[in-house]
Amino acid sequence: MKNSFDDGRRPTEQQSAHSSSVQPFLKWPGGKRWLVPELLKIIEEYEYVTYREPFLGGGALFFALRPRQSVLSDINSDLINTYRQVKSRAAALLEQVRPLPIDQMTTTIDFGNVARRRNSREQFGFFI
To answer: pLDDT of 60-115, one tens digit each?
Structure first.
């Protein structure tokens, strides 16, 4: 699947399946952040080997679950690229976005058009 990636990460022994030291870094329209406590109650009743998320968005449930193995998907290829870049280049992301002011200007710029003109390594900073 083009717009997905297999996380396949293995937590250390100190990490529990539901430790939440990593928080979602995007707020997403239609996100499940508000619903996570109820979803966790339901999901805890089931055993699974691989967590599969077809509508990743901001990833609230994924970050809350901290699954041992996961396949994360979304139809938005820019979103999937952003997760790939954050996973492999988090320090570069921080370096790229720290100088941006948080004001009306940065929240109204159409970064989507700017991002499409850049390669995938540069694009993720504009998407966030």
So the answer is: 999 999 999 999 999 999 899 889 988 898 888 888 878 877 776 655 555 555 54
Residues 6 and 34 in one domain: yes
Instruction: Give the separation between CA 67 and CA 26, rounded to whole angstroms.
Output: 19
Are 59 and 101 contained in the same domain?
Answer: no
Rg over alpha carbons for the chain, rounded to the nearest Å, is 16
* Number of domain units in the chain: 2
Angle formed at CA 76 by CA 110 and CA 57, multiple of 5 degrees = 95
Q: CB neighbours (10 Å) of residue 78?
A: 17
Q: How far apart are CA 78 and CA 21, in angstroms?
A: 25
Do 89 and 58 reside in the same domain of the chain? no
Give residue 56's pLDDT band: very low, low, confident or very high (50, 70, 90): very high
Pair (43, 61) in one structural domain: yes
Number of helical (H) and strand (E) elements in the chain, helices listed first: 6, 3
Residue 96 CB partners (closer than 8 Å, separation 6+)? 122, 124, 125
- For residue 110, the enclosing domain spans 76-128
